[in-house]
Amino acid sequence: MELMIGKQIGKTRYTFVVKGNDLHELVMEAEKLSFHDVFKCGLCGDEFLYLTAYVTKDDGYKYVKIVCIKCKASVTFGQQKKNPGVFYLRKTEDGKLDWKAYEPKDKQE
Fold it and tell me: How far is CA 52 from the centre of its chain?
């Protein structure tokens, strides 16, 4: 069985396909995409966002982020340790998305 799931990130609609051998397995796989639509940047309010993924050189950590094209702010997906296939958007203590302002590499060091 297959299920197509749509997620809106900025102005782009992404379609994810999940598979399962039966309805229960299909729904369990679909729940791994446990993040909601993100329509605009949490810092500048722009709607031009995109998904990006990368692996760090030193430790091989995997990251998925939503990035704003205008101000380059980003919000990172968290990944469960018990079930690394489950991704969620990181939030602040008050429940808002944890948007981080862009910092050029020379300022980070």
Answer: 8
- CA–CA separation, 69 vs 80, rounded Å? 27
Q: Identify the CA nearest to 101 among candidates 73, 75, 76.
A: 73
pLDDT in tens, 40-92: 999 999 999 999 998 888 887 788 999 999 999 999 998 777 887 888 899 99
Residue with token string 């302002």: 101
φ, ψ (nearest 5 deg) of residue 32: -65, -25
pTM: 0.84
H, E, C per residue of the chain: CEEEEEEEECCEEEEEEEECCCHHHHHHHHCCECCCCECCCCCCCCCCEEEEEEECCCCCCEEEEEEECCCCCEEEEEECCCCCCCEEECECCCCCECCECCCCHHHHC
CA 19 to chain centre: 20
